[in-house]
Amino acid sequence: MDINELRYKAMHLPLKPGVYIMKNSRDEIIYIGKAKALKNRVSQYFGSDRNHPEKVRQMVANVDHFDYIICGGEFEALVLECSLIKQHKPKYNILLKDDKGYSYIRISDEKWRRISFVMQQADDGAKYLGPYMSAWYARNAVDEALKIFRLPSCTKVFPRDIGKGRPCLNYFIKQCSAPCAGKISLEDYNESVDSAICFLNTGDSESIKLMTEKMNEAAENLEFELAARLRDRISAVRRITERQVVVEANVKEQDAIAVMTEKGDACFAVIRFRDGRLFDKEDFLIRSVGEDPDLSAMRAEFIQQYYSIRERIPPAISLDGEAEDMELLSQWLTEKCGHSVQFRIPQKGDNMRIVRMSRENAAERLAQSHGHLGHELTALDELAKLLGLKKAPQWIESYDISHQSGADNVAGMVVFKDGRPYKKSYRRFEIKGFTGQDDYGSMSEVMERRIKEYYKNPDSGLGFGQLPDLILLDGGKGQVSAVRPVLEKYGLDIPLFGMVKDNHHRTRAITDEGREIAIQSKRSAFTLVSSIQDEVHRFAIGYHRQKHSSRTFSSSLTEIEGIGPTRAKALLSTFKSIKRIKEAEIEELMKVKGITLPAARSVYNYFHEEKEDE
Fold first, then answer.
1. 254-262: strand order across its sheet
2. How far is the C-alpha of 379 from the C-alpha of 348, rounded, in Å?
3. pTM here?
4. In the predicted model, is pLDDT for residue 247 greater than 80?
5. What residues does each domain of the chain span?
6. How far apart are the C-alpha atoms of 33 and 408, rounded to whole Å?
7. How far is residue 274's CA from residue 204's CA, in Å, rounded to a whole number?
8. According to the model, what pLDDT value does residue 405 have?
9. Rounded CA separation 299/51 (Å)
10. What are the helix (H) ranges across 312-417?
11. Which of 177, 309, 397, 426 has a 20 to 30 Å separation from 220 between CA atoms?
12. β-strands 470-474, 427-430: how paired?
């Protein structure tokens, strides 16, 4: 069926809630969606594709025909959509697989028992705790138990390696009892292992209760050394527990979900809390969502998929932004798990901190997949939100003017790609349009020359061959007002802002022509903008000093008979410094282009006569 036939069929659908099912030429289901009004929703796919993201365009290109199911209401359509997606797993829906597998905690079967994290059970006589759904939780539980009960985490074998070396650093920071150096008896060691197993089986609170009872009993029996050891373990458990309590006291169980996008990909991160402690974290990388995806729709689709494959659903779910049909999703989850489930988008406090933590995890995972660091992606995303940009700026250009009372007027252009300096594309400008001091005129000239260079080889890549996603000028409203007309002249809609400094020459705010945007409270964005401003200033002033030094040296050379500006420049270009020119012999001087024998003799005599006079 061609696109016109599909549109014709869509226009004749009823204006009722329902589920639509897109199929390809092989009658395979490739997408399932729900709609408040089937006619309105489905016909959008087969109209103009200008506003469709790339993923939707690809899906529509593969649609051969579609079916639909009319439902009694929106909620019924949501429940049916979730069920059908889980059953058919269509290619163009967000699909999350519950394929993490199970993990275990292994207690070895030997005299000196060892506790470790493993992904599979083996028929080796060892004891296994589990299975655990969360590998992250099991791994961290083992790490905590080893530290609290001072058990070794190294690869040494006991009793074979006992007494063969000095204890490692863990012994001195009280995280290991050093059986390798004979610092603990086998009996005491295995008592520690039993306590660790109790801790892993029963959790923090029950473990503390049991150890407290044993401590009191030991004290009554005058076993003060054992009582002190148990006291230290109780303190260690409490310290770890206190360190992990990050949720406000009135919310003991919740999930925090956040999404980050970059270069057409997305990553969702989920952080799960139980009893006020971090219980699990997961991330899901989703490829090819398009350059400007509908995040509200993506969040809704993710929530449907994620909780379709989860048994335990918390009473509170914190999100980093709006999701489509949040009331319907809340109703669906409430009926699914048998207790009230509420969504919220926190703006401050502990819950906001948890959502930010989830965003940082998503940023880190996505950044790793693209070969850079998570904090860079977080900073770009924060900057985009601060400036009201549609997406994070991957290519940022910054400009600064440098001169000395109007002399040696130059400019520097630096590029930050994906949040880090991209020195291959740095460029320098010598101001040519006028002499004297005019920062606004200089900035305008530089921008016009930069854009003209782009149009000589548009979209060619490095340097001038790419237009930026954001322009930051070292200066305030005046610089922005000087450059804005240049962008408008060439019909370019590039976000343009100035970087304002305080009285101590530190970055204070970002400005356009009408307002100032404070950035100190946005830590990641502030660090990034400060780095950009410092770098462009360093680059521009470095070029100015080089230019000024070169001009000064050239002036001193032109005092020599027979040496004009051209020959002075050639000498400096070859020898790089006045000192090396002084040390050169006549034959070396004559090798410079334009330097004749009389000129070489004149230079040689000038410096050597000067030396004799000294």
1. 277-286, 265-274, 254-262, 316-319, 342-344
2. 19
3. 0.64
4. no
5. 3-88, 105-244, 254-371, 386-548, 558-613
6. 64
7. 12
8. 61
9. 19
10. 326-337, 349-370, 374-387
11. 177
12. unpaired
The DSSP output letter for 180 is: G
Burial status of residue 589 (CB atoms within 10 A of its CB: 0-12, 13-18, 19 or more)? buried
Out of 2.60.260.20, 1.10.150.20, 3.30.70.120, 1.10.760.10, select the CATH number for domain 558-613.
1.10.150.20
Residue 89 Rama label (left phi>0; alpha psi -120 to 50; beta): left
Amino acid at position 91, single letter: K
d(CA 80, CA 182): 65
CATH superfamily of 386-548: UvrC, RNAse H endonuclease domain (3.30.420.340)
Query: φ, ψ for residue 417 (rounded to 5)?
Result: -105, 125
Categorize the per-residue pLDDT at 144 as very low, low, confident or very high, splitting at 50, 70 and 90.
Answer: confident
CA dihedral sign of residues 480, 482, 488, 490: negative
Give the model confidence (pLDDT) of 591-613 as tens digits: 898 899 988 888 888 877 644 44
Assign domain 3-88 one CATH number from 3.40.50.1820, 3.40.1440.10, 1.10.760.10, 3.40.50.170. Answer: 3.40.1440.10
**β-bridge partners, 342:** 316
Which residue in the block uniquely carries the two structure tokens 């959008």? 44
